[in-house]
């Protein structure tokens, strides 16, 4: 797969830039190359290329034609899953199995949005005699996509996929820590026949390329996934031009385990939702709430699993890889220094390179629900187990943070499942599972500090369009 690691992709062409950033392998802590340090000039050129694409072939493409290009991109991704997974594993430090799942998900997003492109309808609205009223769903225009380093391929699939399906032209600013699959994706798009300018990719620093993108007057919609602080800044910048934003900002998601839960089926979900991608997942489940009568049992069973977790290089494909950077490792270690009793810890394997950014997964107990470890997003392989006495207390603890991304309920009691599904403050609630396998069909997003707007599923298509009402008076 040919692409320029040191370049930016604008108007269908790889372009050189004057400044570069180091490219690091988190598994070794070693620099393995350089990436472009795009800035305001490159963002401006990318926005103009996207505008030109909208006035040209891409803007004239029918919905079915857009769908066919996306489907073709999906097929190429599916053929290159191994190559893309290898790139992502090295760039993000993600164990190969998990990187492969991300590449498969990218292919599936493109298949899904390719198929959906010509199925987004307006409506006809009954009105006064002598009028015909209908609605049109139109693209915003040029959409900006600022994405993080934790799931580049999945986030590209769900945001760029939906934006292209609805006829927008995209400017994508991947994270400075991991941009290789975004660049590879640009090459795949070109190969599939996506017209020049419909997708532009500009790697660079957040404060430079990212800020320039959020503030650019040519951008008509911004899709941002990342931290709360930057999300706020992006929303403020977009507000200058009254531009809508979708914010996906992470969480402190609980799994609530009642005494009647089927623990055998719950255990894998309880642990995996905390350690997948070394806990660097917006929808990570970092709080496990357990009804007191089974608290000790759940803690002990989770502790057994933690003790078996191995941490090592992404290519070795163990359960847990490194964190993305020395900075992220220091942040997680800062949290861990704040206390809690260690119920169990995973093990960094002996041959893990000493300069890699490894943190042993840690299962914590002995802290209250108001402790920072139980309230703040840690973004590392850390889970806290908290007891509760009854349903009221479970809801109070579960809803007791400022976030609201995901929650799950483990119980065999159907009435309780329905009650809690309504009462839990979260963008998605899972019953007797966690994440539902990440299906692309499922709308996804948060409430509170977790953000607003929905990506994934058919729902995302509404967010990437603006509704026009047409009222014709014909007498
Ligand atoms: O995120 P940033 P960071 C959370 C998680 C993590 C913390 C910090 O808690 O520990 O954020 O991670 C771009 N204008 N999440 O520092 O800085 C940046 O270049 C415009 C949750 O990596 O928010 C990157 O492309 N853009 C999360 C993207 O924003 C700016 C995923 C995210 O980086 C910018 C990642 C600016 N001023 C972190 N500054 C999730 N929801 O999954 C940075 N960026």
From TrEMBL:
Belongs to the aldehyde dehydrogenase family. Pfam families: Aldedh. The keyword Oxidoreductase applies. Residues 20-470 form the Aldehyde dehydrogenase domain. This is Aldehyde dehydrogenase family protein. Keywords: Oxidoreductase. InterPro entries: Ald_DH/histidinol_DH, Ald_DH_C, Ald_DH_CS_GLU, Ald_DH_N, Aldehyde_DH_dom. The active site is at 248. The keyword Iron-sulfur does not apply. It comes from Pontivivens ytuae. SUPFAM superfamilies: ALDH-like. Coiled coil: none annotated. It comes from the Bacteria. One of its GO terms (molecular function) is oxidoreductase activity, acting on the aldehyde or oxo group of donors, NAD or NADP as acceptor.
